[in-house]
Input
Amino acid sequence: MLSSTVMAQAVGSPEAPPHSIASISATEHSEAFDEALKALETYKKKDPSKVIVRFKAVGNAPIMKQNFYKITSSNRFQAVIQFLRKELGWQASEPLFTYINLSFSPAPDDTVSNLFKSFATDGHLIVNYSTTAAWG
Amino acid sequence: MSTYGTTRHHPSQPPPSRVSTDYHTTLFRRLVWEGAVPLEIRVDPKELPANSDRGLECYFMQAPRVSYLPLLMPEIRRFLMDVVFDEAAAKNLKEEDWWFETEEGTLLKWHWSIGLIYDNHTISASVRVPSQAHSMSTPLRLILHLASPPTEKLLLSPSAESCKQAFMGQLKEADFIRWGNTKRITGLRKAEQDGLWEGIKDHNFDDFWRVASKVMPIVPSTRSQSPPPASMHSRPPSADNTAVPDRDGAYNVRSVPVRVYLPDGPVLQELIPPILEDGTLNTLSHFLTTHLPLLFPQRPPAPPPSRTNPNPQAPPAPELAFPLIQGVLTPPDSEVAWLGACLAGADGWLNICIGVSRG
Output
C-alpha cells in the first residue's frame, strides 16, 4: 500500500506490522498478548455513571415540563432520541431533529459519554430538538 | 503534485488572504485519498434467488478508503444484474433492504468509511485466537444480505442521501471540536457544501479539496516535514514567513477530532490539545499512554545504579498494542496536530484503530 511504504521509509519502521508474524502456534500466546486482552476487558466495561442532558426546544417544538435528565453515559445517542420521543409522546413517524449546541447532529452511535466529554457546557450536554431540519 | 491556492474569508476578517496548501500536506492528503482496500463481496448463498448463476456470485473490488458502502452499491448492483441474477430476480431487487456483515458476523455501518471498516476488521482479527496469517492486503470478505435488515442496529437507511447527511454531520462535529463552532462549514455556500459530497461520490481529489482546503486546518510549511525530537519543541512561531492565519492553524485548534477504536468496541473520544500545558507538542504516544495506559504503559524507570551496572538504562516499554491510522502503523512520535491535518479521513476525523500485538 503506497501510503504505508512512504511512512515506513520516512521513519525507518519495519514494513511488516506486528500482527502479520504468524509463527506463534494456537496454544502459545505470550504474556503480553494475555495482558493486552485483560486490558481490553477493562476498557470494555460499560460506564454506569450518569450525566446531565438538557433538552432545549427550537422553533415550534413543544417545551417539556422537565428539561434536565440524568442519562447513563454508556447509552448511544440513538437511545437519547428514543427517550426524547417517549417524553414528547411522539410516534416514530413524526419528524424529530436533534442537535448538540445548536450546531450539528451527532452520529446515532456516538455515545453520551463521548459527546459529554467533548461538548458539555456548565456540567451538562445541551440537546436541541425541533420538528424541522435546522442545522443538519 | 498540485498545490493550489484557496481563498479563506471569514465574516469578521478584512481582505481574504491567499494561502497555498503546502506540498507535504497535499502529499499526505493525496495518499490518504488514493488509499484503497480489497473487498470480496458475496451474496449470502441462502438468499440467492432461484436461477442465479452460482459460482459467479463473488465480486472483488478495490474500494477507496474515503468512500462508503452505500456509494458502492450501484456498482455491486450492476454486477449482480449482469452476471448473477436472472431477469425475474433482478426486478425484485430492493436495495433499501440490503445490508452487509463480515464473515465473523459483525454488522457493517453505512456511515463508517470503507477504510475505517477495513482497519476495524484488522484489529478485530488481531485478538482472535488462533492467529491466521493475516497480511495487510487480505481482501475483506463481506456477506451481502438482500432482505430483513436489522434496522435498529444499522440506525440509518442505506441511501446515499442518508449517508451524505451523516457525512456532513461528522464534518460539522469535527469542526466544532477544533474551533468551538461550525462557522467554517456553515460559512460555505450550499453549492460548495454539496460539492464536498460530490467529490466523495465521484472520488475526485481536486473537487473535494478545492472546498475542503477552506475548512480543514493548515499546517505551516515550516512544520510539515518530519519533526525534530519533541524535547526541542516549543510553540511554533506565529510570525513565520508563510503567514498562516492563527485562526486556521493545525496547532491552534482547541482539540484534534480523534476517535479511538478498540477491537470489537468500544469507541472512545477524548479531548486532545495540540500543545500540552508545558508547551511541548502533543504526540501520539503521549496521548495513548495518557488515555490507554493499560495498553500503552509508560516506559518503566531505569533501575538504580549498581556496581555491575553503573549506568542503567530504562528497559523498553512493553509492546502490547499498536495504533493504525489509515492502515498505517503510526510512529509514536507523530504530532497529533499534524496527524489531524494530514491523515484524517475525508470527514475530518482522525480514526485510530488499536490492535493487539502478537508478542
